[in-house]
Amino acid sequence: MGKLIIIEGTDGSGKQTQTELLYKKLCEIKGEENIKKLSFPNYESKASEPVKMYLAGEFGKNIDSVNAYAASLFFSVDRYASYKKDWEYFYKNGGIIISDRYTTSNMVHQSPKINNEKERKKYLEWLTDLEWDKIGLPKPDMVFFLDVPFEFSQKLIKERNNKITGEEKKDIHESDKEYLKNAYDLSKEPAKEYNWVIISCVKDDKLKSIEEINNEIMEKILYNKDIKI
User: Fold this and answer.
1) Rounded CA gap, 202 and 188, in Å?
2) Count of beta carbons in the 10 Å neighbourhood of residue 50
3) Model's pTM, two decimal places?
4) Nearest CA to 200 among 181, 218, 213?
5) Could you read off the pLDDT of 33-76 as tens digits, one per residue?
6) Is the C or the N end of the chain the one with fewer CB within 10 Å?
């Protein structure tokens, strides 16, 4: 089997930027033929249609219009289709996968819909059992959580166009600031429960540079005996 490394974080935390930079650096070390970069949801896939409908508000304009379990299924189907069509063979033959988001994104973005802590834990157990046991998606070898405080991520979100429309319009997650703040506040629960590597992206009330953050990620990977880069 290969290795699966995830870059995770709340909206506006720089996941895509860090994933792309990490991919380039690992390609230089291992060769492009041994590294594959993914991003979820895969908006180019037909399997992502329910995800796009959900984020566009077609099932309801409010976050709570679709509960955590139902919403998670949309994303699970997208990930499963990607795995079977795009990277199962590569992964099973020793390839290294670098992914911008994964099952972990539902853990961050759907669990805040559940107010009770015990119920949130039940949801996390259900989700990981569904994806990593029942339908057979690979369990990540390392998950990096980019810890960007809410007030910083909000500034970054304003500068970023929506990926679905290519316009300034935000999806139902990005449009709800209370939800986004709650997602950040609760994100440490799965991070601690599932042993994610938390990367603090702010120092002395200033965002660290992209390269500084990426160097921290690279160091953690290179010194991980299980990854063996």
Assistant:
1) 16
2) 19
3) 0.91
4) 213
5) 999 999 999 999 999 999 999 999 999 999 999 999 999 999 99
6) N
